Amino acid sequence: MLLVPYIFRRVLQLIPTFAFIIIVVFVLVRLLPGDPASAILGDRAIDANVDRINHELGLDQPVFVQFLVFVKSIATGNLGNSIVLKIPVADLIAQRMPVTLMLTVMAAVIALILALPLAFLAALQRDKLADNAIRGVFQVGLSMPVFYLGIILLTVFGAKLGWFPVGGYGEGFLDHVHHLILPALTLALSLAAILMRNLRAAIIGVVGAEYVDFARAKGLRPRLIMIRHVLRNALISTVTLFGLSIGTLLGGAVITETVFAIPGAGRLMIDSIYGRDYPVVQGMTLALAVCVSLTFLLTDIAQAWLDPRVAR
Amino acid sequence: MTYARYADSLFLDPVLNDANVDIWILSNLYDTLLLPTDDGKGVQPGLATEWKVSEDGLTVTLTLRDGIKFSDGSPITGEDVKFSLERAAVPDTTWQFLVASIASIATEGKTVTITLAHPDPAFISALTVFNTAIMPKALFEAEAGATDADKAKAFAEHPVGSGPFMFASWERGSTMKLVKNPYYWDKGEDGQPLPYLDGVTFEVIPDDATRILRLQSGEVDGAELIPYARVDELKADDKLNMEMYPSTRVQYISMNVRPQVNGADNPLSNPKVRQALNYATNKEAIIQIVTHGVGTQLTSFMSSATPMHTGTAPLYPYDLEKAKALMAEAGFPNGFSTSLLVLAGNQDEIGIGTAVQQMWAAIGVKLELQQVDNATRTQQYRDGTMNMRVAAWTDDIADPNEITSYFAYSPTIDALHSGWKSEEADKLYVASQSEIDPAKRAEEYARIQEIFNAEGPTVPLYETPYPVALSKTTMGFNQIPLGNNIFRAAWLDK
After folding, report:
1. Interface of A with B in 194-253 (CB under 8 A)
2. How many domains does chain B have?
3. How many Cβ pairs closer than 8 A exist between chain A and B?
4. Are residues A55 and A189 in the same domain?
C-alpha cells in the first residue's frame, strides 16, 4: 500500500508551506499603509499618542527585530495579545475558529446532501424536465450574491415565518446548530450548484465509457455499476473541487457572518485587517492556513484512495 | 431589554479607551461626579450633589453624595475619587486634555477639593465626561500586572463601577450583558429606584438590514444607526418608534491647504478657491441624496447642539456664479485637478464624493475619488499627503473647546492636519481656555467661528441626528447629543 508514505510526504510538505505563509503574512500586513495607532485613534490621533501606542506595541523597533519576536512567539506557542481587543490572540482563535469551522462544516454537509443525489438524477435524466429544472434552480442560486440570498432567507424563514432566529449565534450546541442552519444554507447553495454541475458532467462522461458498457455486458446489476464503476470514477474530480472549495467557503464565511451576525473568524479577520491588528491578522491567517492545508491533505488522501495512481 | 449595536465594544477602561463603541456605553457601567443633562448641554448632580468654583476660578469644591457605593457594595470614598481623577490626568493619554488643568486633588470626608493650575471654564463639564468616571481604587490596584495599562486590561475584563448597571458577561463580537446595580443611588420621577430594567443585553449585529429585521421580528427592543435610506420606512412601521436624537455630529470635507502638496503647487491654499468650492456645493441636494432629507445644513463648523455655537443662516448658500467668479479671481478660470479620499464601502462618503465630483465639474474642478480604508486614510491625513477627505466629527464634552482645538487651534493637529493657521484664532482659543466670564468666552468663540467659517480649510456639509429605532414598548431610553446611550430610566411597557 503506497498510501502511508504518500501521506507522510504530504505532511512534510506542509512545513515549508507554513513557513512561507508566516513570512508572507508578516510582510504583507506591514506593507499596508497606516499603522495600528492611526487605525485605533482615527481622526483624534495626535503625535504623542501615536508614538506612545507604537512604543507600547514594540512597533518602533526595526522590522527585523519585530520578525524575530514574532517567530520566537510562534515557536513558544504564544501568539501575543490583540492590539485592539487587548486579549490573547490564542484565546480569540479558540473563541472564533470553532464557530467558523462549524459553519463551514454544516455548509459543506448541506452542499453534499443537495448536490450528490440531484447530480445523479440530472445526469440520468439528461436534457429531460428534471435535469433542466435542477440546473435552472441551481443557476439562480449560483448567480445570486451571498449577502442578498442571506437577507432573503432571513426575511422569509426568520422574520416572516419565524422558523429560525434572525441572526446571532445562540447559546449551547443545539441552539448554535439552529442559528447556523440559514447561514450554512446560504453558503451551501453556491457550492452545491458547482458540485452538482461538475458531478453531473462527470457522470455523463463516465456512463458513456467503454468499461461501463463492458460491465453492463457482463450482466452486472445497474446499482452495482452505478456505485462501483460510475460513482467512484466520477467522484475524483468532484472531490478535488470540493476540497478546493472548502478554502473558498472559509473565505466566503466573512460576508455570511456579517449578514447573520455570527461572531466567527471571518468577521474578526476583517475587523483586524481594518484595525491593523497585526498579531490577530498573523495568528488568524496561520490558523486558517492550518485548516485549509489539512483540508487539502484530506482531499489528497481521499483522491489517492479513489484513484491509487495519484499516490505513486 | 436587548439593544442591537453595529459593532462591539473594544476596551472598557474609562481612561485608556479610544473609540465611540466604548465611550457611548461606558456611563451605564461607570458613574461620574456630575452628569450631563438630557439635552447634553448642561450639568446635573451625579456622585457629587454640589459643586462650587472659587472666585478666581482656581479651586473647585465638590460634595459627595451620602451612602454611595460601587456595584460590589463597597463604599465610594474620597480616595477612589482622588485616584480616578489623578489617573484621568496622566499626560499623553487620549483624553487627558479634558482635565489637563488639574494641579492637585485633596479629599476630606465628603469634600473633594480640586486645585487647578489655571482657571478652566470647561472643567465642570469635564467632570461629566467618561474619562473622569470614578473607579474602585482597591479593586483596580489588586489586578495582576506591573503597569497601569496592564492592570487596566485585566480590570476591563470584569469592570466594577457605580453606574446604573453592572457588568455580567461578555461574549466578544456577539453579546454583552449588563444587570441592574442594586446600589445605584438615583430614583426616577415616580420615586422608584433606578434603573427600572433588570438588565441590558447588547447584541452586535453589524449588517444594517439584519439589525432592522431583528428589531422587526421582536428579537431585540432597539437598534442603533439606522441607515438614513430606511428612516421613512421605519417611521411608517406601527410597531416601531423611529427616534431621531439631536446630536453633535457634523459631516464635512476637509482640505490640505499647505502651499505645496507632494511637491506640487496646491490651489487649495488660496482661500478664494476654498470659498468657490463651498459656493459650488449644493448642500441641500447632498442632504437629499445622502441623508434622504434627514440632515440639516450647517450654520457653523460646530454643530448647533454644541454650547456657544453661533450662526443662524446656512453657510455658503449654493451660488454657481459666485463660485465661478471666485475661481477666476483666484487665477483658476479653467479650474484644476485634485483628489478626495473617501472611506471604501461607506455609502455616505461615496455618495458625498460622487455628488461633489459632479457639482465641482461645473467650475472646472476635476475631482478624482480615491477609496481607501480607515488606517490608510488616517495615515495620509496625518502625513499631509492627501488633498481632501470626507470626514465627520462628534463632540465628547458639552463645551466648544474640543472641536475648536482639533478644527481651528493649530498647535493641536495643525487644524485638522490642513496646515491652516490663524494667529487670531489661536490666541482667542488660548484665552478662551482660561476665561471664566461666560459672556466674554462666548464672544471669543463667536469670533473663532467667524474666522474659521470664512476662510477655514473645510466645506461644511450637514449635521445629522442619531437615528435609533425602538419597539413601541421601549420607553425612557435616550441618546444624548454627545452620543452616550442612557438606559438608566429606560423601561419596557408590557
Report:
1. none
2. 3
3. 132
4. no
